[in-house]
Amino acid sequence: MSEPLSRAHALALDANDPLRDLRGEFLIPRHEGGEQTYFVGNSLGLQPRGAQAAVQEVMGQWATLAVEGHFTGPTQWLGYHRLVSGQLAQVVGALPSEVVAMNTLSVNLHLMMVSFYRPTAQRPVILMEAGAFPTDRHAVEAQIRFHGFDPADCLVEVQPDEAEGTISLQAIEQAIARHGARLALVLWPGVQYRTGQAFDLQAITTLARAQGANIGFDLAHSVGNLPLQLHEVAPDFAVWCHYKYLNSGPGAVAGAFIHERHHRDTTLPRFAGWWGHEEATRFQMAPQFVPSVGAEGWQLSNPPILGLAPLRASLDLFERAGMAALRDKSLALTGMLDALVQSRLPHVLERITPADSERRGCQLSLRVIGGRERGRALFEHLRAVGVLGDWREPDVIRISPTPLYNRYQDLHHFVDAVDAWARH
């Protein structure tokens, strides 16, 4: 038996990994004649080999059918967005009618707040985490101002209360209770982008509902990373991107979830567009807006077919693997990485992601001991030797072993490279 943290043990785990063949379905960047050790699936997922064929199929249809491509064949463009809805619903634990691939995350966030942030003089407040990803903070402040309120009074940010800058459920509960009578919307991440902390979506939804507030989630770092059950959890909405763990390319089409209880509520305000009009009468070109039933009713324009094509290729791989198996491997990979860092690099790196595996996904956020200058030096060294994580100011390197394509031996590449730098 090899030692659990030995390279030999890692190689044995790779050899017996039931998901090992999936790595071959991705194009791995090269470095000095070999494969780069890539840990940035939390920022931009690798390209599935099937993505190019999916895009070329659309290009071929455009070349040979032109406008008739909208209405011809099993992958006709008129309903192309539905080619991903079933598999996407499986990934996020929703009904197919509750999800739609459209726009980008920031656009979708604004569209959802049009419907679900309805402030009054008595209830004008949005509650979110302090240090949220800038797009969320910008969108929330803009929406508050748009409605004629002051963010200084109507934006509540829950401060970290745990040692490494993470936020306890108790702190969230206290904040929601404290502001409950004035809360219009709770907007919360599934996984906090900088710390990698994962949150209990069901508990937060229950807390918001108890105060009469709407609840929405930014799942940019959750979709494809953690098993989700959005239909059962039943927030009002959720938004996410597809270019991270869903491997759909830079600037990929994003996604949105609207719970089915809202699907036939025509009193909900929304920014309407032609593609959200019911399909049966869309081409009658009538002036009255009749929304499609379901999340599709929040669409604005016809979807970018070339942008949706890579998502189809990626979702095929998720269906092949299954989220349960991916989560099992993710727990093992990130657990081993954590143990290796604690064992071999405690003088170099300090984990700020929660130690409890239930409170994190595959990302470990590692603070470089010694400050920003030392941190940047380590980051540049890793990049120079072909080990790629990503940098977050002022002193954090994020490393995300992604179970679709990362291996156990990759963890040793990272730890060995850090150790060699520290010894130099």
UniProtKB/TrEMBL annotation:
InterPro entries per record: Kynureninase, PyrdxlP-dep_Trfase, PyrdxlP-dep_Trfase_major, PyrdxlP-dep_Trfase_small
Which N-terminal residues, if any, form the signal peptide? none
Reaction catalysis annotation: L-kynurenine + H2O = anthranilate + L-alanine + H(+); 3-hydroxy-L-kynurenine + H2O = 3-hydroxyanthranilate + L-alanine + H(+)
Documented EC number(s): 3.7.1.3
Query: A GO molecular-function term, please?
Result: pyridoxal phosphate binding
| Biological process, per Gene Ontology | anthranilate metabolic process; L-kynurenine catabolic process; L-tryptophan catabolic process to kynurenine; NAD+ biosynthetic process; quinolinate biosynthetic process
The entry's cellular-component GO terms read:
cytoplasm
Q: What class of enzyme is it?
A: hydrolase
Q: Which SUPFAM superfamilies match?
A: PLP-dependent transferases
Q: Where does pyridoxal 5'-phosphate bind?
A: 105-106, 133-136, 218, 221, 243, 274, 302
Q: What cofactors does this protein use?
A: pyridoxal 5'-phosphate
> Which pathway does it take part in?
Cofactor biosynthesis; NAD(+) biosynthesis; quinolinate from L-kynurenine: step 2/3; Amino-acid degradation; L-kynurenine degradation; L-alanine and anthranilate from L-kynurenine: step 1/1
**Keyword Hydrolase carried by entry:** yes
Modification N6-(pyridoxal phosphate)lysine, positions: 244
Annotated keywords: Hydrolase, Pyridine nucleotide biosynthesis, Pyridoxal phosphate
Task: Please indicate if the UniProt record lists Hydrolase as a keyword.
Answer: yes
Q: What does this protein do?
A: Catalyzes the cleavage of L-kynurenine (L-Kyn) and L-3-hydroxykynurenine (L-3OHKyn) into anthranilic acid (AA) and 3-hydroxyanthranilic acid (3-OHAA), respectively.
The record's family statement is:
Belongs to the kynureninase family.
Q: How does it assemble?
A: Homodimer.
Name of the molecule in the record: Kynureninase
Give the species this sequence originates from: Stenotrophomonas lacuserhaii
The record's gene field reads: kynU
